TrEMBL record:
<feature type="binding site">
    <location>
        <begin position="195"/>
        <end position="203"/>
    </location>
    <ligand>
        <name>GTP</name>
    </ligand>
</feature>
<feature type="domain" description="CP-type G">
    <location>
        <begin position="95"/>
        <end position="252"/>
    </location>
</feature>
<comment type="function">
    <text>One of several proteins that assist in the late maturation steps of the functional core of the 30S ribosomal subunit. Helps release RbfA from mature subunits. May play a role in the assembly of ribosomal proteins into the subunit. Circularly permuted GTPase that catalyzes slow GTP hydrolysis, GTPase activity is stimulated by the 30S ribosomal subunit.</text>
</comment>
<dbReference type="GO" id="GO:0019843">
    <property type="term" value="F:rRNA binding"/>
</dbReference>
<dbReference type="InterPro" id="IPR010914">
    <property type="entry name" value="RsgA_GTPase_dom"/>
</dbReference>
<keyword id="KW-0378">Hydrolase</keyword>
<keyword id="KW-0547">Nucleotide-binding</keyword>
<feature type="binding site">
    <location>
        <position position="288"/>
    </location>
    <ligand>
        <name>Zn(2+)</name>
    </ligand>
</feature>
<dbReference type="GO" id="GO:0046872">
    <property type="term" value="F:metal ion binding"/>
</dbReference>
<protein>
    <recommendedName>
        <fullName>Small ribosomal subunit biogenesis GTPase RsgA</fullName>
        <ecNumber>3.6.1.-</ecNumber>
    </recommendedName>
</protein>
<dbReference type="GO" id="GO:0005525">
    <property type="term" value="F:GTP binding"/>
</dbReference>
<feature type="binding site">
    <location>
        <position position="280"/>
    </location>
    <ligand>
        <name>Zn(2+)</name>
    </ligand>
</feature>
<dbReference type="InterPro" id="IPR030378">
    <property type="entry name" value="G_CP_dom"/>
</dbReference>
<dbReference type="GO" id="GO:0042274">
    <property type="term" value="P:ribosomal small subunit biogenesis"/>
</dbReference>
<dbReference type="InterPro" id="IPR004881">
    <property type="entry name" value="Ribosome_biogen_GTPase_RsgA"/>
</dbReference>
<dbReference type="InterPro" id="IPR027417">
    <property type="entry name" value="P-loop_NTPase"/>
</dbReference>
<feature type="binding site">
    <location>
        <position position="275"/>
    </location>
    <ligand>
        <name>Zn(2+)</name>
    </ligand>
</feature>
Length: 348
């Protein structure tokens, strides 16, 4: 009788690793120099956070983490997080002012919007602002071009609000317009796809991967889609690139700065720079170049309203963040004071 072979040990992974998927209490990672390897599960501390500089933060897909495993009997564990080159960030959905990092260390943000039903220009502007804020390069992808009679004309309309950004209309079933996107897939290039449910992100990911790596779903009767992606995951693509597919976004809280807004609304920013007063509120002030452009029709009222709404939202989120930082600083000083008094009481 031969003895049964011992069960195979899970692959051992140490050193710099890329996060493929982030779950509660654990991560799936691959070696940073072999993104096509089979993912390995590694544990997190009890709080689910990872050291980054002087703080602790939740890891996300695309992060570069340092993994330690002293020996085969000890489970692999995430020791620290490497600084993020770029970060796609949205405002948290709850009461906390902490933003949520959707993806880290990405090079290209694919803003995915459907052509059927008609594209939502305000949503494109919102997602472009998030993309510019991330530090990555935004690219607009208009899906379902095979379902509309004039995809080129509709793409031109979207290009009118996506200033300085490449806009591509694609029809995945026919392969229409996919080649410019495939040209982005260089070795080591990381992309992230963001957009609403039903925009065809998972179908697009499958086309770029050359195989079915994400489930796809049918549209509802009103043209809107159901969620087919329920988590964020790093997917290997052709040419050595990787892509993060994200769940459909119904509402995106804005985390932006003045530079990101100016990049998205470069035309409005140029007008505002010509106003007579530096602190012009663009309402009824004399010499307001923005109001003059509105009245003459040179600036579209919808775009102006979108700019004001996103600027107001970004300012509100910044105030929340400042309040949180101030509260953390007060708490830090309280802890330091308590420790000082405790040390004084225990001195001989």
């Amino acid at each position: 009788m031969t003895s049964a072979e011992p069960p195979a040990r899970p692959a051992r992974v140490t050193g710099p690793c890329r996060v493929v998927r982030a779950d509660r209490g654990a991560l799936l990672v691959v070696p940073a120099d072999d993104l096509g390897a089979a993912p390995v599960r590694v544990g997190l501390d009890r709080d689910g956070l990872v050291p980054l500089d002087a703080s602790r933060v939740p890891p996300t897909v695309g992060d570069l983490v340092e993994v330690e495993q002293p020996d085969d009997r000890t489970p692999a564990h995430v020791a620290r997080l490497h600084p993020r080159r770029t970060a796609l960030v949205r405002d948290s959905a709850g009461r906390t002012s902490l933003p949520q990092v959707l993806a880290a260390n990405v090079d290209v943000v694919l803003v995915v919007e459907h052509l059927d039903p008609d594209p939502d220009l305000g949503r494109v502007e919102r997602l472009l602002t998030l993309a510019w804020r991330s530090g990555a390069t935004p690219v607009v992808v208009l899906t379902k071009a095979d379902l509309v009679p004039d995809p080129a004309g509709m793409a031109a309309d979207v290009a009118g609000v996506a200033l300085g950004v490449d806009v591509h209309a694609v029809g995945v079933p026919t392969g229409y317009g996919l080649e410019p996107l495939r040209a982005l897939l260089g070795p080591g290039v990381a992309l992230v796809a963001v957009g609403p449910s039903g925009a065809g992100k998972s179908t697009l990911v499958n086309a770029l991967a050359g195989r079915e790596v994400m489930a796809t779903g049918e549209r509802r009767g009103d043209g809107r889609g159901r969620h087919t992606t329920t988590h964020r995951e790093l997917v290997p693509l052709a040419g050595g690139a990787v892509l993060v597919d994200t769940p459909g976004i119904r509402g995106v809280g804005l985390v932006a700065d003045a530079d990101a807004l100016d990049a998205t609304f470069a035309d409005v920013a140029a007008l505002a720079a010509r106003c007579r007063f530096r602190d012009c509120a663009h309402r009824a002030e004399p010499g307001c170049a923005v109001r003059e452009a509105l009245e003459s029709g040179a600036l579209d009222a919808r775009r102006y309203d979108s700019w004001r709404r996103l600027a107001k939202e970004a300012a509100w989120q910044a105030r929340r963040s400042d309040a949180r930082l101030a509260a953390e600083e007060r708490a830090r000083w309280r802890r330091a004071t308590r420790e000082y008094h405790r040390d004084v009481r225990t001195r001989p």
